[in-house]
Each structure stands twice: as structure tokens, then as C-alpha cells.
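Now for a chain:

_____
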Amino acid sequence: MLNNMTDTEEGEGGPNSQGDGNPKESSPFINSSSASDVEKSQQYDGKNMALFEEEMDNSPMVSSILSSLANYSNLPQGSKEHEEAENEEGDGVSKAPSLGTLMGVYLPCIQNIFGVILFLRMTWMVGIGGVFGSFFIVFMCCSTTMLTAISMSAIATNGVVPAGGSYYMISRSLGPEFGGAVGICFYLGTTFAGAMYILGAIELLLVKIQAIVFICSVPFTMLNNMRVYGTIVLSFMATVVFVGVKYVNKLALVFLACVILSILAVYAGVIKTAIEPPVFPVCILGNRTLISKGFDVCAKVIEQDNGTITTKLWRIFCDSEFLNATCDEYFANNNVSEIQGIPGVTSGILAENLFGYYLEKGDFLEKRGLSAVQDQEVPITNSNRYVLADITSFFTLLVGIYFPSVTGIMAGSNRSGDLRNAQRSIPIGTIAAITTTSTVYMSAVVLFGACIEGVVLRDKFGEGVNGNLVIGTLAWPSPWVIVIGSFFSTCGAGLQSLTGAPRLLQAISRDSVIPFLKVFGQGKANGEPTWALLLTASICEIGIIIASLDAVAPILSMFFLMCYMFVNLACALQTLLRTPNWRPRFKFYHWALSFLGMSLCLSLMFICSWYYAIVAMVIATCIYKYIEFAGAEKEWGDGIRGISLSAARYALMRLEEGPPHTKNWRPQILVLLSMDAEQNVEQPRLLSLTNQLKAGKGLTIVGTSVVGTFLNNHAEAQKAEQSLRKLMETEKVKGFSQVVISSNLRDGTSHLIQVGGLGGLKHNTVLVSWPRTWKQPEDNLRFRNFIEVVRETTAANMALLVPKNIAAYPSNGERFTEGHIDVWWIVHDGGMLMLLPFLLRQHKVWRKCKMRIFTVAQMDDNSIQMKKDLITFLYHLRIDAEVEVVEMHDSDISAYTYEKTLVMEQRSQILKQMHLTKNEMEREIQSITDSSRGSIRRNNPSNLCSQKSTDEPAGVSVEEKPEEECNHYQRLFCPVRNQSNVRRMHTALRLNEVIMKKSKEAKLVLLNMPGPPKNRMGEDNYMEFLEVLTEGLNRVLLVRGGGREVITIYS
């Protein structure tokens, strides 16, 4: 931002406001000081922009910023947000990105996609799954990556993508929660990919090259050899990466050349088989494939020097070298035959390999079409001489093992910081690379099935062809081309994984979305992620300890599939939400394609391994929830927020269709708070009560009013809103805060009641505190505002909750271990009195309190039947409560009632007739109040003035009126002027007497709140009635229903 316009320190009373009040003519800046006026006027002279001179201080001219906007440069991977890093890079001169589509995207994708699976497992997959099954697997996996690439291209071309690749795209499209979760999954996938590549290199080293099979003269099993050699290679690779990534990048082209040469050698070998098939004999006993080691001639006996002699094969299965030796039953009953391992592309072997041949662990590799004599009752011997299946194979296993061979499509987007034109190179390069590799894979499936014998294809480790790579037997000019090429290819891919994974973790750590990963954002002085590399090597060692390429491959498949699924989800959401910022240059995308890609990814996850899929989802969910609750809040304009807005709009439109059913009714509370002079909340316990009531969830709006005008008091309103939000956070109230600026508090409160909420999501209940100092003359306006709130909520058919003595209410940290919540059900108000205790008891503060319901029976009521009916009603409501019916018989109105009513009326009339000033009024009220505390004759109504009149309404109340005062004003005011006031006071006193008797020790008393007076002259009396009704009770919640049923007996 440019510097803001400077205001005068004196404000409206400053020097610029003196005189006629107009700014000087020479100054184009209304609020500027005279010292800077000349400079600014000279600065903009001759620019023909006088109309916008005031805005130029905080809004730069387009001509001055256009160059920097157009020449935006990408940031290094893992750096801060590009908006924040602009000021930090001012002094450094960065090298301009120079890579094009071929070198920056296409070739890196080719190198990452082609890998260990192609050379070590592709032929085995074709042999086990058949040409049809394998082609379907390849097509499904390649389709998934192609659809993902289309979605990724749309995201990558929707604006500049700083370096960070897939993590950046997902996090900025789906938000920090999804971005962090999927980023970690992608990191784990890349790390386990490094372990898979290292295991592939070790398998080539031990099985094919066989340079060393012993370590310290101690023989190891195959798995232990894999673990030891794998750890050594991992340590070496991690050291190379630590020393310098530049060496890895320099060797990348060498490793890529090895991959391409190996693939070309395979295609050359296929062409050669059509002309001259290579000689790779496979020895078959009966229909079982024999391990080629241990014998030189594939025959039982040979003719030599006019005699028949036995071969090494005979000595393996027989107990001596003589013809009369005892031999293995199966060996004796079956012939030995030799078949051609690679009959050639024109041999017609394709028809035999079209369908799958799935094996259980330990099964023999048998040649289709050959018969064998086998006695099922004879136990199998010499099984170690045959080629056996090392694992149980099935279709889903093949999918899990194969899928890693199509990963690596993100290699181009990960290099976006080095591309000249990332928006053009990423789509073209990635889609071209996937097309190329998919063509190679699909053609390889068909060619392998057409050239190689089925038993050789199913021979995973080439035991029947002298330990050669099966794909190597097909290559031309020599199998060693494949062995050496694939070894360097796997080593290079492993180095790339150990290089990319730590940088991805560093980028996540520096985004600060996962607090406990912050340490991994640090590194060496040149930015190399040292700590992230150590963690990556440690996780990679877990894959090495597994020591099985077939077991590691499905693990990384899960993490990559989850990453690809969310890339598709991001594109689909952005497309469907139609956010204004969604304008990708890549036009060949559609939300349906993205959803198809997402569905394929999810399906493949469970096809590969349902338990690995669940584990991966649990990991992602845990990270998501952790970021949601503990991570830093980021606003990246993500699609999830767009979903929230769309869902909220849809829900609000649905709510507009009609009022909610009684079963769905819940209190949507508007909490009316008052603020002090410092804009701090005066009744914080109101929010504690709100939190305890929110077991019913629903809407909560916390509102207050600020007196003034919007222009002059906006800062105060903001301060008040901050106070509300801070208190809501402290009290753990989830909802919205709203501050209204109005000319007076009465109108502000009215505005809140009228306009709070939106559409169908409006409040139906108002919570306001009792004005405890209403008798004080200075608070006269406050209690009248309170009565206006009662009137307005009644007119709006809203429920009203008025807690009395709010300071005595428990905080959220308190616990009641026993006690009662008493409900005094006087009149039916829709069931609010029943619902509120139930909601309160859902909260831990009130959970152990028991509920009691009291109702009042009149003279003509059958109290026994009332109790039975109430018990039945509560049973149908599924509410547990004790029930008691209190009988209130008609009784004479006591002298105390008359006297209390009389004092109330006389006080009002005195103040009205005498027109006292404020100070005089205070003294008069005090004198009356003090006198009323004297002795009162409660039992002799004859001494009181008993004449009645209803000509004038009542006024402001006082507590008691002594006889002396009555005599003093007997000529004017002694008669009770309104008999209805006597009846109301009588009811209030009788009810208070009964409530005090039954509920004095209750933790909370809920009772019906009487309606407000119809005319404003009776407001004082109304407050006095409520005061008498609740006198002596510690915690009282006055409840006034909204005129509709809120509780039902139906399910």
C-alpha cells in the first residue's frame, strides 16, 4: 500500500478549519497540511489528472504500477506468500526463469512416470492378469492421470502459480485444511516413492547383478539383504542431497537418457523377435517350470559315447546318478521338455496370454496346454527346484502395484518457478507426457503378451531364465542394457524423490498451517531444508524396513490417489461455483471430467487396498481436524469458502419457504447487551447463560447499540464489536456479533430486533437482562426501554427471556452437584417453560440438577386430576420431572396488599402533580421510601382509605406507604384509584408467597412473565408487580412465549 493521506492533528479544530472553513485554493488535498500542499500540487502538475488527485495518495496511477504487474516473477519454492514477500526481495537480483515446455515439463514428467514398475513388474503383471486384464488396469490408471492432468492444467492456468506445485494449487483452491492434509499425504507418497525406487535398485543389485550376497561372511535372507543394502543406499542418497541438489539436477538428464535407451532397446527387441527370436530356453518338468540354476542340460539322460548317462537334473531329483536310482515321484512320471521363452511376436502366443492366471502363494508356475501326471495323495517334494509364486495374486493387488508407474505427473507443476511461461508449458507438457507414457504402457502390455511365453511372464525374478530380467530377455542387443539402464533409472528417481519431498514439507511448514511442523521450515543458509531431509530419510527408512516392493507400492498409491482426487475436486468446485476469479486459459476442461477423475481416484484407492485407503483417509482427516482447531487461520480465497457461501445461500432460500415445524423449532437467540463508556460489556454473564442454553444449537446474535452517527462514531462501534467478539470467544459462544449506531438506545435496540438475522435465519427469542436499578431516577429511561423491548417482542411474536439477578448466575466453569430447576407453569405459552430446562440440563453446569414443575390450581379445579394429566403430558414429551399442583384458594385481599398498592399509586400521583425538579423528585422519593420502611398496619384495612376510583391510571411505584403519608395527602390521593392494581398486587404477593415456600432453595426458578401494560401510564406499576412477584428469589428467569408451539409429543 502507498502512504495514506495525512490528516491534521487538530482535527476539526485545526488550522484548516478556521476562517470561512474552506481549504486553501492552492491545495488539492482537503485534509493536508499547508507544508506539504505545495509539494503535492507540484507533483501532480501537468498530469491531467486533477479530478483524481486526492485518490493518488492511497491509490497509485495505473501507469506507475503496470510494469510491475506485467513483469511478475515467481518465487522460490517454499517461500512466503508472494503478496508478502514483495518487500523482502527488493535488493536481490533473481535469475529469470528460462525453461520451456520440453525441458521444464515434458522430459521431467517422462522421467518421473517411467520407473521401476515398468522394468521389474510390468511383465509379471501381464502374465498374471492377462493381456485383457492388464490393458484394462493400464487404461484405467492412465485415464485417471489424464483426467487429473486436465483438472491440474485448468488450475495451473488460472493465474500465476508460484513454485510449490500441487500443494500450492490444492491449498489455494480448497483452503488450508484440505491443502495441509493433502500436502502431507502427497509428501508421504513422495517419500515412500523414494523407498520404492531404492528397493527396486536393491532388487536389481541382489537378484540380477549378484555382485555381493554376503555381508561380513554372514548369510542373510533376501529380506534382510534388502533392508541392509537399502539402508546403505538411502544413507548415501541422503548425503548426496544434503551436499548439494545441483549434482542431482546435473545427473537428471543422464538418468533420463538411461530410461529412454532402455525403452528403445525393448522396442528394438520386439522388432527383432519378428525376424529372429532370441534363444532363451525354459526347462519344463511335466507342466512345471524348473529353476534354471543347478543344471546345464534340460533332460533326464543324454546319449554319450554310445551310452546313456544321467544329467545334473537327474541327480537333483534322484538319490544317485545311476539309472536304477530312486527318484522323485513326479520326476519319474513326467517328461522334461524345453520351450522357447520368447517365441516372437509372430508366434501366436498372444492368444494364450489373453486371460489372467492368478496364483496362490507357493503355487507352481505351470505351462498352459501341457499335461502332467500327478498323484494327489503323494506329498510334494523338491518344491525348491521349481519356480513358485512368492505372493498370492489377485486383480486389486495388480492395480495397487501398477499405479505408481503412472504417478509423476506433477513434476512439471512442481517446477513452475523455473518456467518461462508456466500457463502454457504445464498443460501442454504434462498432457503430452501422459499421452506418450500411456501409449508406451498400453503397447508394452500387448507386445509382452505377443512375444513372451506365459510361464516366463509370470516368473517375477527370472528364475527360469538364468536370473535375467524378464523384460531384459526381450531387449536388444543385450539384457544388460535393461539391467544397467533400469538400475540408474531407479537410483535417479530415488534421488529426485529425496530432493522433492523435503522441499514440499518445507513449503507446508513455512505456510504455518501446521504449527508442530514449523521447525521443518528451517534449513541451511542457502535455503536447503536440512531438518525436512532428516525427517524424509527417517520415513523412507520405514519403507526400506518393509523390504518388499510389492508391499510398498500400494502404500504410496494411496497417498498419490488422494492427492489427485483433491486436484479433481478443486477444479470441479471452482467450475461449479463459478467464482469470478475462475478464468483459466486452458479451456478443454469440464466439471463432469473432474468428477469422473475424482470418482476414479476414490475407486482405485479401495480397489488397490481398502484398509490402506481407510488408513490414508484417517491420516488426512486427523491432519484436517488438527489444522481446523490448532492451525493458523488463512484466507486464501479457497473453494471451500465458496461452497459455504453457496450452501448458506441455498439453505437460506429453503428456509424462506415457510416457518419451521414444531419438531425443528429451537431458540434462535438475540442477546441484547449494554456497553459502558469504554465500550466494555456490562453483563458478561448473559453470554454464559447463552452458552448454557445453546444445547439446542441454532443461531446466536449478540447485539448492542452505540449512540451517535455512523460517520462520527464508527470507531466506537468497531471497538464495541471487538469487545463482543472477545467476550463471545471467552464464553465459547458460537454466533455473530452486530453493533448498530443510532441516535438513541431505544431506536438502536428496536433496529436490532427488527433487522437481526437474514432471510429465514432470524432470531425468534430475545434475551435481555432485568434492569436492576430501575427505581433510581437516573435509570428511568432504561426501564422504559426495557418495557418497549417487551412490547416489541410481543408484537413480533418472539419469545422473551429475562434473567433477574444475572450476576448470581453460574459461569461456564461452575458445576452444580445437586439442586433443582423449578418451573412455575401458570399459563401455557407454547411450551417454552418445558423446553428451556431441558436445554439447560444438556450443559455440564446444570446437568445434575433435577427438574420440578409446579402448576397452580384454582378453587374449581380438580388438583388430583391435574397432576395425573400433567404426569401423562410430561411422559409423552419424554421429559423427566417431578410434578406438584399447588392449590391457591380465593382469599380476602389483605391490608398489606391495599397498602402496597396505595403507596404505589400515591407515589406516582405525587410526582405527577407536583412537577418536581429532578433533585426535588429524588429527595421526595427518598423520603417516601424511608418512611415506608416504618411500621405498617397490615391487619387493619379499616384504617386505610378504602374508597376506589378507576378514573386515572397508576404511575410510578414505591415500595410501601405509611399511614402518616396517607393522612398528609388524604384530601387528594388517599383513595385507591384503580381496583385492578389491587387485584394484580394481590396475585403477585400470593404467588410470591407460594413460590418462596416451595422454591426458595432452587438453583433456578422459571416462571411466566406477565404481559406489558397496554398504555404507557402503567409502566411503573408493571415493574413493581414483577418486582413483588420475584422478591426474595436468587435466580429467576422470566419467560414469555412467542405465541406458537415449540414442543410436541410426536416423533
Summary: The radius of gyration is 44 Å.
